[in-house]
Amino acid sequence: MTDLGAPPPRDEGFLPVPHQRLCAALGAWGLGGTQRLLPLPRGASGEVFQVDVEGRRLVLKYAYMSRSDFEPGLLAADVVAERGLRTARPVRTIEGDLVVMVEWPQGTEHPLALLEYVGGTPIDPTTAAGAEVAGRVLGRVQAALTNVPRRELALDAPRDYLHFLRSAHQDLGDCSWLHSYNADLVAEIERLTADGLELVPGLWDGPEVVVDEASDIGLIDFGNVDLHPIAHVLGYGITQVSPPGRTNAQRESTFLEAFTSECKVPEAEMAVIGPFRKVTLATYAKFIAMRRMASRDLPAELELALHRLLSELEHR
């Protein structure tokens, strides 16, 4: 799955957190002392490390997110794991907490979580087989989460899954037209949801699906769990199997058929997948534009991704 995720609160999300701070925080799990942290490919909103302790392999994630945005994903991973899927679920601290708050950079705190290690090779959702697996897995995840009481996922406080697109204070450089585009898109989505689309717990922008040597499916990264229409999940999934510049109607059909075989989707939700695909594209485009303004030097693959995203949004 595409790993762009939600943007960090400020440019601090691109600074490496000192290992000694993380090692000190491991005492909350009874793992005090100096641990060897092996950096893993980082996400867009966090740093990830492999930790080997007494023959057990774990993952440490420092998320440049608020605790209230991060913990629902940890709780959701637990729910999905209870349904029999191999999932990077959280390891609770000695006190029973999901996370420990760590100060970095100076004056700010972000949550640190210890997770079960899930090994395997990521699937390629832009193949026919990968689209089927992605649809089936996302459908199972959504079916597991749909009816979970909000309080059990720490989603009972007021939430707004469109807050990133709704905000317009960020400097997007020559992509500043996205603010106006996003305002219109948010208004369109609000009209659609006013017609009766239910907001339910669900995962957007994830999970990453991996397959191990025994062909067992594994799930990594539940970082964007919120209340939103199922159409938002479907819009995201379609962008993975049929991304900008490589759209493919057959893969989209395969994905949707596999998803709906695992999770019942109301017809009203199926009818608005197109607008919610635009929500995903606009979110990714805005995030990459922000990162380009912050770093002034985007990797070539992100420059290409931004070009394809903007081309499709302008065309639509």
Verbal overview:
The chain is α+β, with helices and mostly antiparallel strands. It has two domains: 11-118, Phosphorylase Kinase, domain 1 (2-Layer Sandwich), CATH 3.30.200; 122-315, Aminoglycoside phosphotransferase (APH), C-terminal lobe (Aminoglycoside 3'-phosphotransferase, Chain: A, domain 2). It has ten helices and twelve strands. The protein has helices spanning 19-25, 67-82, 128-145, 163-166, 177-194, 230-241, 249-262, 267-270, 273-295, 300-315; strands at residues 37-43, 46-53, 56-63, 86-87, 90-91, 100-103, 109-116, 121-122, 200-203, 208-211, 217-220, 225-228. The strands form three sheets. Strands 1, 2, 3, 5, 6 and 7 form a six-stranded antiparallel sheet that branches. Strands 4-11-10-8 form a four-stranded mixed sheet. Helix 6 (230-241) packs across helix 7 (249-262) and helix 6 packs across helix 9 (273-295). The radius of gyration is 19 Å and the shape is globular. The two termini are 23 Å apart. The model is unreliable at 1-13 (pLDDT under 50).
Could you outline the blueprint of secondary structure elements for this entry?
Layout lengths: L18 H7 L11 E7 L2 E8 L2 E8 L3 H16 L3 E2 L2 E2 L8 E4 L5 E8 L4 E2 L5 H18 L17 H4 L10 H18 L5 E4 L4 E4 L5 E4 L4 E4 L1 H12 L7 H14 L4 H4 L2 H23 L4 H16 L1
Parallel strand pairs: 4-11
Antiparallel strand pairs: 1-2, 2-3, 3-7, 5-7, 6-7, 8-10, 9-12, 10-11
Helix pairs in contact: 3-6, 3-7, 5-9, 6-7, 6-9, 9-10
